[in-house]
Amino acid sequence: MINWLLPSAPSDKLVPKEQMHGAFIKYRTRILVSTILAYASYYIVKSNFTLSSPYLTKDIGLTTADVGLVLSALAISYGIGKFFMGLLADRLNPRYFVGVGLILSAIFNTFFGYTRSLWVMILLMIGIGVTQGIGSPCCQKSLATWFDEHQLGTATSTWNISHNIGSGTASLIVAGTVGAFGAANIHSIFLIPSLISVVMALIVMVLGVDTPESVGLPKVNKSKQKNIKHKTSWGAFHDNIMKNPIVWALCIMNAFSYILRYGIENWIPIYLSTSKGFSSVATNSAFTIFEYAAIPGTILLGLLSDKLLKGRRVPIMLVTSSIILVLIPFYALAQNIVIIDIILGILGICIYGQQVLIGIVIMDALPVESIASGIGLSGFFGYAFGEVIASYGIGSIVGKTSWNAGFGIVAASSIVCIISFIFLLKKYHNTL
């Protein structure tokens, strides 16, 4: 019944040698396009609640602590889901598995718009979190399968713009839905993004590809160590991940990086509307700028790490963390929407650039058979710890004190990142 979810068998018909170069270009393009579309659609669903939170607080009476609690449910379930779904993704066909996860996530999101109960919201958000955990491991597994070490940084940073395309597009969808149906029509704010994501899931499953061998192409060049095959997911996890100190260090660092990201991103709509008094149009525009500015910036940082630094990523991450630390007080103090938009654009570039580079280093450090598991583990740390602090922690603190206390948590996390990246550079200066 689920045989179609299993990895595709190698093709009996091999691509002629003289056609291999063109075939690789064609299929790699399809992989990039399909993974970008897939994960952008995941983010259309995932960003839905954050963008709807001002309307939910106004019309339903949710507090900032309630919003933080729901977002924490998403963070914890997403982190756990990402880890276990990563283990599954290493053993399944990512082309179809990624589509199934997106459809299930969209179904949960649709029901979200029809409830006014906080606890039902939390349960539905847990369902969204678990199914959302399928997306990133599948996409990054596909990239690692099709692109070698000299292309992976550029390919992954290009794919990473899907985060920004999805979140930025989600803000436009929510704004358009509110304009068409009214802010009180909450179910439409969740239904429309869900329908769009289901359509995209079907397109992705048609467009995607499993492995090079499944279409008659040879494996992408990897060292023998990179192609060791274990019979079980646990065996691969134990040998490839548990014994790898670089992966564990970066997983922990990912938690602090996610505090930076969600400590800013999750609170843009509420912070700018309540603290600064900006309109919904201005807050949605600021959110979109935060997401869209990272698109060219993330690609550029990936290119720099591949071409200029010859695969070294950590020096760039040290610079991005430093810039974030400098800009946080300016973001807290600024009153002009243009200045805030500029600051958010730079923060978006640095935060997303840093996160994609952490993922690339993890992919560099692991054999192909454990890429999805490693990404899943880093996601667990990022969401179950990092986003919980950025969501519920900051939401609770802001409710009891002020926004400055919330920004203090973000600033402290950037300092931890700076210190940790300096340590990694000294210890692994030849490889990172």
TrEMBL record:
This protein's record includes keyword Transport: yes
Subcellular location: Cell membrane
PROSITE patterns, A to Z: MFS
UniProt xrefs under Pfam families: MFS_1
Keywords for this protein: Membrane, Transmembrane, Transmembrane helix, Transport
The keyword Cell cycle appears for this protein: no
PANTHER family in the cross-refs: GLUCOSE-6-PHOSPHATE EXCHANGER SLC37A4, GLYCEROL-3-PHOSPHATE TRANSPORTER
MF-aspect GO terms: glucose 6-phosphate:phosphate antiporter activity
InterPro entries: MFS, MFS_dom, MFS_trans_sf, OPA_Antiporter, Sugar_P_transporter
Protein's organism: Lactobacillus helveticus CIRM-BIA 953
Membrane topology label: Multi-pass membrane protein
Record field: transmembrane: 27-45, 65-84, 96-112, 165-184, 190-209, 246-264, 284-304, 316-333, 339-363, 375-399, 405-425
Domain (Major facilitator superfamily (MFS) profile): residue spans on this chain: 27-429
Chief localisation class: membrane
UniProt name for this protein: Glycerol-3-phosphate transporter
GO BP term, example: phosphate ion transmembrane transport
